[in-house]
Specification:
Elements: H1 2-14, H2 32-43, E1 53-55, E2 61-63, H3 69-86, H4 93-112
Antiparallel strand pairs: 1-2
Length: 117
């Protein structure tokens, strides 16, 4: 009985199992992936680098905008350095904090402004 169970366990481990991975992107699409690609081509104009606009399911054109996170971080860093350099009295904490806040607001607004065609 022990040999039977051990043999069945070894056979189960050695049995080939098909891979459940998606095919590479250059392979022809069939089934679910073909449906998703057709839907994406129907609702979007071009690829994501072609422009900041896309067409929704209702037929209206929408504008894709950045949320401004990169500008916020870069602006805060630059503003903190500038505020620290300007404030030369005391511990310079006030100038650093105010410069970081002003730089963050300016950087965020600068990166959020996107013109949609």
């Amino acid at each position: 009985m022990r040999k039977l169970i051990l043999g069945a366990a070894l056979a189960a481990v050695a049995a080939p199992v098909p891979a459940l991975a998606d095919p590479p992107p250059w392979a022809p699409a069939h089934g679910r992936r073909a449906h998703e690609e057709a839907a994406r081509q129907q609702y979007y104009r071009g690829d994501s680098y072609a422009g900041p606009t896309w067409q929704g399911r209702d037929g209206r054109t929408y504008c894709r905008r950045s949320n401004g996170t990169t500008g916020l971080i870069v602006g805060a860093g630059a503003g903190a350095l500038l505020g620290r350099a300007i404030d030369t009295h005391g511990s310079r904490t006030t100038g650093t904090v105010l410069g970081a806040a002003a730089g963050a607001l300016l950087g965020r607004e600068a990166t959020r402004k996107v013109r949609c065609n």
